[in-house]
Design brief:
Blueprint (H helix, E strand, L loop, with lengths): L7 H7 L41 H14 L3 E5 L2 H12 L5 E5 L4 H10 L6 E5 L15 E7 L11 H11 L2 E5 L4 H4 L9 E5 L13 E5 L1 H14 L5 H11 L2 H20 L4 E5 L9 H7 L6 E6 L2 H11 L4 E2 L9 E3 L11 H7 L6 E4 L5 H13 L2
Parallel strand pairs: 2-3, 2-4, 4-5, 5-6, 10-11
Antiparallel strand pairs: 1-7, 6-7, 8-9, 9-12, 11-12
Helix pairs in contact: 2-8, 3-7, 9-13, 11-13
Length: 386
Amino acid sequence: MSEREQGFDTRLIHAGTPQPRIEGAIATPIFQSAMFEYAGERDYHDLRYIRLNNTPNHRVLHEKLAALEGAEEALVAGSGMAAISTTLLALLDSGDHLLMQDCLYGGTHDLVHKDFPGLGIRSDTVDGDDPSGWEAKLTPRTKLFYLETLSNPLLQMPDIESAVAFARAHGLVTVIDNTFPSPVNFRPAEHGIDLSLHSATKYLNGHSDLVAGAVIGSARLVERVRRKLNHLGGTLDPHAGFLLERGMKTLGVRVRYQNASALSFAQALEAHRAVKRVNYPGLASHPRHARAKQLLDGFGGMLSFELHGGADAARRFLERTRLFLKAPSLGGAESLVTRPATTSHLGLAPSERERMGITDGLVRVSIGLETTADLIEDARQALDAG
């Protein structure tokens, strides 16, 4: 059986593992060496050096990540934002233009809207759910269409199939942030998307103890990103690489549990009188529930919601929860709760957040690995306290 024919969880454990195993070690050793002996390499980017992303720890991750999403190549970076920024800078030059889904992670939004104009890179936002408005935003220098599989923090799901067809028709590269679903629930290469990005800090690692990023997709494009990353220096340290590989081996069992737990939690929230709206693609009330059922293998561990009492009620909810930790990240074993207006999207002007639908009262939840009934009870007592 070839690696491509193996099941997802088998690839999680075995893909990329050095063969033969180094000194028989079951776990890949940590290669904490800044450089390696010269072996006749003829290209600068092939020299064995930590910053050039080619230590044994890097190579294991590259092969494993590519195998998980059924892609040609992969690359790890020092953070999710290093993966995002390096990818965009590798594919866009001064004078170029990109289209972006209109509700994105705050760090991506700030990068494109605050930093890129000074580099001569222009952008336009589009409604990811309305293809009729996309062509009007094209320019002769449009090169790229950027999406999120499930948007942060509103859990919107763009029309991915139309975006791929549109990009192909107009010669654009498609780039999607696939952090929220993880490769367990969605594999972009299977749907014709050129590059998939991850904050590997989140689900891929799953233990809230490192920062990393990943780029997965076309070999030609990943190589362009790798060369840019080698110059910019956003490299993943080998020890963090060791931890990331270890964390990824449990990705399947973790995410499937979080899928089921988050769905039960979202259903309980939706039934509570204090809750105005729950944003979760697994709910029949989600405007793109049918699309999510068609494209995703699971609905993920992330959700957000609004309370009838607005920002004051949201603050009280955060104060009264006992199991949920108040922290701005996601995807770990611990359940986390945060208000995006004060964390992930704090860099946006209030008017911009409001335009995107990110109110001061929006609460975002990352469901961890605790007993689902305990999480539901904790949320219920916090809501009942009013």
